[in-house]
Amino acid sequence: MDRLQKVIAQAGVTSRRKAETLITDGRVKVNGQTVTELGVKVTSNDKVEVDGVPLEREEPVYFLLYKPTGVISSVKDDKGRKVVTDFLPEEVEQRVFPVGRLDYDTSGAIILTNDGEFANKLMHPKFEIDKEYVAKINGIPTKQELNRLKRGIKLEDGKTAPAEVKMLSADSKKKTAIIRLIIHEGRNRQVRRMFEALGYQVLKLKRERYGNLDLIHMNPGDIRPLKPHEVKYLNKISVKKQ
């Protein structure tokens, strides 16, 4: 048996906290009866409805996709472009969605799941999940500029958190550099905007690692199920800052 709010969150309806609000607001029914108390537990045989819509409880699934460039981080696109769910194996029947997003022109690691609670946990700004990027930029930053990235860059939506930064290589003839960054925030186009704040354009960007998940032995477009210990570890490290 699981708590009602957990079941609602795992079905991808909303986060567990918002599910609690749905319950206390009288918008949830169990076996036809309105439930307003948070301590209620349900089994797989119980019929749960949210706003009159039956809850479809699916077996949770978790995948790691090596997203190629030119792919939308969504379940559908009104312009008919390729989306991340197009790479799922045909036998997957669950309603899977991406955890967060990668820009259209950015490649790399992205998680797909149908577990709403898991997804909300990983995306919550108060949880710290390391994300490692490798960026090719049109210029060679100075040590002082790299230190600014490390300390945090002021953007229009606030200063970024401290980052781990290392220059992997520099080409003085082409005037380009390869930089590795490890951040734990997930702002829109954050890495690109951090370099733009220093006057550099990102020519190529790849997310090489998400938490404990890397792309070793994977090619663009490859997808694989997460192993139980990988899911367990991501749950474990998504701990709120005290």
TrEMBL record:
GO molecular function: isomerase activity
High-level lineage: Bacteria, Bacillati, Bacillota, Bacilli, Bacillales
Enzyme class: isomerase
Record-stated family: Belongs to the pseudouridine synthase RsuA family.
A Pfam family reported for this protein in Swiss-Prot or TrEMBL: PseudoU_synth_2
RNA-binding as UniProt keyword: yes
Protein name: Pseudouridine synthase
Signal sequence annotation: none
UniProt KW keywords: Isomerase, RNA-binding
Coiled coil: none
InterPro entries from the UniProt entry: PsdUridine_s_RsuA/RluB/E/F_cat, PsdUridine_synth_cat_dom_sf, PsdUridine_synth_RsuA/RluA, PsdUridine_synth_RsuA/RluB/E/F, PsdUridine_synth_RsuA/RluB_CS, RsuA_PseudoU_synthase, S4_RNA-bd, S4_RNA-bd_sf
